[in-house]
Fold this protein.
Amino acid sequence: MKKYLIILLFLCTLAMGTQLSFNSGQLSEMMKYRVDTDKRTMGAEELENVIVRASGMAFKRPGTEFVDDANSTSNVRLLPFEYAANDAYVIEFGHEYISFFRTTE
């Protein structure tokens, strides 16, 4: 039974084809019914947590990283600050204090 399921899955994949490019990005609902354009074959109905490069490849977007707890229990504000191309910080503004976090790559 498992062997037949794998063969069926393989045949369905062949019938649907493989999408090699996502140059058109995420397409609207109306674009799905347009048969007169090639954009339909190079786009996706839904893209979630994906970055599409100019070359057409789709990559999972990078996640976030836990750095530290806030120094206060009240509201804080985080602002990005880029000093140079390879030197960036995140500044935490809280009630009567400022904290600096250096971003690493």
In short: Strands lie at 25-26, 43-44, 50-52, 58-60, 77-84, 87-94, 97-102.
